Amino acid sequence: MNELLNVNEVSISFRQYVQGLKQKNLEVITDLSLDVREGEIVAILGSSGSGKSLLAHSILGILPENANQQGKIIYKGQLLDEELKDKLRGDEIALIPQSVNFLDPLMKISDQVIGDCSEEEYPQKKKKQEELFKQYNLDKDVEDMYPFQLSGGMARRVLVSTALMNNPKLVIADEPTPGLDEKAVAETLKHLKQMAENGVGVLLITHDINAALEVANRIAIFYAGYVIEIALTSDFKEDGENLLHPYTKALFKALPENGFELTEGHQPLHGDIPEGCPYFSRCPNSLAKCEHERPHLINLGDKKVRCFQYEKEEL
Ligand SMILES: Nc1ncnc2c1ncn2[C@@H]1O[C@H](COP(=O)(O)OP(=O)(O)OP(=O)(O)O)[C@@H](O)[C@H]1O
Ligand code: NI
């Protein structure tokens, strides 16, 4: 599978004013690395507020003004700078937004799915929209409806159709499942799978571990703004023996089918990250150096882990 997206040591922080004119830098994402290949679903699993949407917005080039980004994002071998992001956004790189509020309440559905286009382009775009509606089970009369007339499931299918209008190569789905009933979740996940089968690379942002386990090929686990492990989804099956990081192992044990065995403590918050390994205070097998030294993301081939225990195995 060819590599599509390569996020290389990206950090995102915000300048904040504290006590008058004193500035503080609040780092939300630190040295984040991950890659997505064609036809692959990579899930990013992290708790609320861990910076998942920020990563999506950074890839799309829609970060807020006061954000500061470091590191490199490579798309198909090319540096994804602001100019290229502008060019590809909504085209080769598409977002399935977190909320159906992204739909314009005052605009007819077909017009917003098709988007701005020239008169010459219109017939072809209209044809594509009709094909997508058929594929996603949206009746012809939905075309002339307004968002308030759609059920939740229909609105989600409209968002999926909108993302697919311009045949994207990379789709970023930002928490597409919260608040949906079981059937709608299954349907959304099925759509993501279909995209991947058609060669699209999908970055699935979620805090729903079960959704990630169901469709992803690989799962990147966020902890305190770091990716602490990139695991194969199959590592979460059976007894979880193949998982590497102690946090991922704890997460696995906390799955309902494994008895909700939670570890003590909580994730350090932005701006309060210790100088050493962010998991040090909770880790059952920490080494002396973990307190003051931070491990990098150790490359073990398809899998990666940020933990000194695996240093000797690095490729
Ligand atoms: N414009 C901003 N200025 C300052 N801090 C911000 C700004 N936008 C986001 N943040 C900070 O970044 C953190 C991460 O936000 P983000 O929306 O990426 O989280 P998330 O992982 O997507 O959460 P959720 O699961 O709730 O969607 C927030 O907790 C907030 O502290
Ligand atoms: Ni979010």
TrEMBL record:
<dbReference type="InterPro" id="IPR003439">
    <property type="entry name" value="ABC_transporter-like_ATP-bd"/>
</dbReference>
<keyword id="KW-0406">Ion transport</keyword>
<keyword id="KW-0067">ATP-binding</keyword>
<dbReference type="InterPro" id="IPR013563">
    <property type="entry name" value="Oligopep_ABC_C"/>
</dbReference>
<dbReference type="GO" id="GO:0015413">
    <property type="term" value="F:ABC-type nickel transporter activity"/>
</dbReference>
<dbReference type="Pfam" id="PF00005">
    <property type="entry name" value="ABC_tran"/>
</dbReference>
<dbReference type="InterPro" id="IPR017871">
    <property type="entry name" value="ABC_transporter-like_CS"/>
</dbReference>
<keyword id="KW-1278">Translocase</keyword>
<keyword id="KW-0813">Transport</keyword>
<dbReference type="Pfam" id="PF08352">
    <property type="entry name" value="oligo_HPY"/>
</dbReference>
<dbReference type="GO" id="GO:0005886">
    <property type="term" value="C:plasma membrane"/>
</dbReference>
<feature type="domain" description="ABC transporter">
    <location>
        <begin position="7"/>
        <end position="249"/>
    </location>
</feature>
<keyword id="KW-0472">Membrane</keyword>
<keyword id="KW-1003">Cell membrane</keyword>
<dbReference type="GO" id="GO:0016887">
    <property type="term" value="F:ATP hydrolysis activity"/>
</dbReference>
<dbReference type="InterPro" id="IPR003593">
    <property type="entry name" value="AAA+_ATPase"/>
</dbReference>
<dbReference type="InterPro" id="IPR050388">
    <property type="entry name" value="ABC_Ni/Peptide_Import"/>
</dbReference>
<dbReference type="InterPro" id="IPR027417">
    <property type="entry name" value="P-loop_NTPase"/>
</dbReference>
<dbReference type="GO" id="GO:0015833">
    <property type="term" value="P:peptide transport"/>
</dbReference>
<keyword id="KW-0547">Nucleotide-binding</keyword>
<protein>
    <recommendedName>
        <fullName>Nickel import system ATP-binding protein NikD</fullName>
        <ecNumber>7.2.2.11</ecNumber>
    </recommendedName>
</protein>
<comment type="subunit">
    <text>The complex is composed of two ATP-binding proteins (NikD and NikE), two transmembrane proteins (NikB and NikC) and a solute-binding protein (NikA).</text>
</comment>
<dbReference type="GO" id="GO:0005524">
    <property type="term" value="F:ATP binding"/>
</dbReference>
